[in-house]
Amino acid sequence: MFARGSRSRAIAGSILFFFVAPFVVAGVLPYLLFGWSINQPLLGLFDTKFIGICTILIGLSCLFDCFGRFALEGRGTPAPVAETEILVASGLYRFVRNPMYVAVLTIVVGEGLLLGNSLLFVYATAWWIVFHLFIRLYEEPRLSRRFGVSYVAYCDHVRRWLPSLKPWNLSGHQID
User: Fold this and answer.
1) Which pLDDT tens digit goes with each residue over 90-128?
2) SS3 sequence, 77-115?
3) CB-side neighbour CA atoms (13 Å) of 28
């Protein structure tokens, strides 16, 4: 559907995939399951709502950055059916291997803080388990086969879930 190599197709495919995956996981499903009603702040702290808004905005900006990198640098999409031509290891990918998943979970946690709904934390945890299994059982083996030594070296230096404070550069060394 969206051939690799064409930036305009990669951008269109990435936009489509955004609405099929992250938008559904972080927007549609939470709304359908929990609604958008704002409850009392968690632990009675008013600041949780402000922190929630900031967390959502950070998650969204990270997600948009990652999608842009896939389309513009990788000339592909995050969708497995129209993957990138090259291994994207720039931007947030220099700090953590799965910034898109981290961004989606960050958005859901921010929604929990904003809405005062602790069930959204349980929902985020459930999705983290699903993401983790998908990454370990499908994505990592596929990327290892596809990109070989480059991907193995990348995995050796960049953590799967917890971002590093020091970015990994493409030559394989952390920057001081």
Assistant:
1) 999 999 999 999 999 999 999 999 999 999 999 999 999
2) CCCHHHCCCCCCCCHHHHCCCCHHHHHHHHHHHHHHHHH
3) 8
Q: What SS3 class is residue 168? A: strand
Average pLDDT over residues 42-60: 90
User: Between the CA of residue 96 and those of 13, 46, 111, what are the distances in Å?
Assistant: 24, 31, 22
Which amino acid does the sequence have at 149?
V
pLDDT score recorded for residue 122: 97
What is the distance in angstroms between the CA of the first residue and the CA of the last residue of the chain? 42
Distance CA 154, CA 36 (A): 39
pLDDT bin (cut points 50, 70, 90) of residue 170 is low
112 and 118 in contact (C-beta within 8 Å)? yes
Nearest to 109 by CA among 175, 30, 2: 30
For tokens 């690799």, the residue is 4
The pLDDT > 90 percentage for the chain reads: 64
